[in-house]
């Protein structure tokens, strides 16, 4: 029976995974709900073989990914003519990561009430004020100031610097 290069590569992968270390890799992947991602992409043998010796060729580098994140991955391949060591080729893995949505930065400038709207909404602003009883001048002034600002902020709206 004549085997194609892809079948030989798959056989090499299964032989590596059939060893004691390979069984540990598979057991670890199953227990943590991981997928071996560089086996899910169809590639030519030159883009799968990461260990290349005179008479031995094998895929020894694997990318383990959570099953829920499998849709984020787009490519995994070995660069055929680059070497990390004399017989080892680098594995390049591509993921599509979307940046998180940016939260609105809290405004740090001073808040300004839009007092120009007072002419149009004077009745609503005055109707929204509830003044406390008058005790002394300083407390009455402070209470009046806070009540007017709260009523104006709710009716006229505020903007930031």
Question: How does this model look, in words?
Answer:
InterPro entries: Endo/exonu/phosph_ase_sf (IPR036691). It comes from Nippostrongylus brasiliensis (Rat hookworm). This is MSP domain-containing protein. The protein is an alpha+beta fold and 161 residues long. It folds into two domains: 5-95, no CATH class; 111-160, no CATH class. 32% of the residues lie in helices and 17% in strands. The chain is built from four helices and eight strands. A two-stranded antiparallel sheet has the order 1-4. Strands 2-3 form a two-stranded antiparallel sheet. Strands 5-6 form a two-stranded antiparallel ribbon. A hairpin with a 4-residue loop joins strand 2 (51-52) and strand 3 (57-58). Helix 1 crosses helix 2 (20-31). Residues 1-15 have low confidence and may be disordered.
